[in-house]
Design brief:
There is one protein chain. The chain is built from six helices and eight strands, in the order H-H-E-H-E-H-E-E-E-E-H-H-E-E. The chain is of the alpha/beta class and 203 residues long. Helix 3 runs parallel beside helix 4. It is elongated and about 65 Å long.
């Protein structure tokens, strides 16, 4: 079977609040549902991404007694940041520490597993499920796939931009604006620097 691209996987994946969480008897009328009931899968769901979205999806599935494998390639978008904000009860926590704590929260759900691995390919099976190849060399089968791989910042080719990213060069005023509220700011729109002063916060 040919590997699916992102668009095809999205089309083939059901909404989390929809068919994914229903019992097998509730999806008999869906295309391929009978095959899902008869075929045995390694996990109900593959979750691609171990950030907030993926970990939250894993917890929801665990509480519904569904089995899931969370694949995290350890490349979080907020890796350069020293703190995570606008998060009640965890305001200011280091992003890496938050992920560790979230994983610890998942330990009580025996049906949820996490692995530090990259998903290399996803293929649709004739039975209606999916086969995924991981960077560990494993090939596993799943009923459904959740893409929670987030975003990747593509930084401009400007001296010092990458080194200062997440430290004094930011993309989000909600994440860092309060701590830098009295700074003198420059902004980078359409490849040009424009000078601006922010006496209270970055907008």
């Amino acid at each position: 079977m040919p590997a699916l691209n992102r668009r095809q996987v999205l089309r083939a994946t059901v909404l989390v609040i929809g068919v994914l969480f229903r019992s097998p008897l509730a999806i008999v009328g869906a295309k391929g549902a009978q095959s899902h009931i008869m075929m045995k899968y390694d996990h109900d769901v593959l979750i691609v991404g171990g950030g907030p979205a993926g970990l939250s999806a894993g917890m929801t599935l665990g509480r519904m007694l569904r089995s899931a494998l969370i694949c995290d390639d350890q490349r979080p978008r907020n890796a350069p940041s020293a703190h995570l904000n606008n998060f009640p009860t965890r305001d200011g926590i280091h992003p890496a520490e938050w992920r560790k704590e979230a994983r610890r929260n998942l330990e009580k759900y025996s049906t949820i597993q996490t692995v530090d691995a990259r998903v290399l390919s996803i293929e649709r099976t004739d039975e209606g499920g999916f086969i995924a190849e991981l960077s560990t060399g494993d090939r596993k089968t799943f009923r459904r796939v959740i893409l929670a791989d987030g975003l990747q910042d593509r930084l401009p080719d400007a001296p010092g931009f990458k080194e200062l990213w997440g430290k004094s060069v930011f993309h989000c005023p909600f994440c860092h604006g309060y701590e830098a509220r009295d700074w003198h700011w420059e902004r980078w729109p359409m490849g040009l620097w424009r000078r601006m002063r922010c006496p209270c916060t970055l907008v």
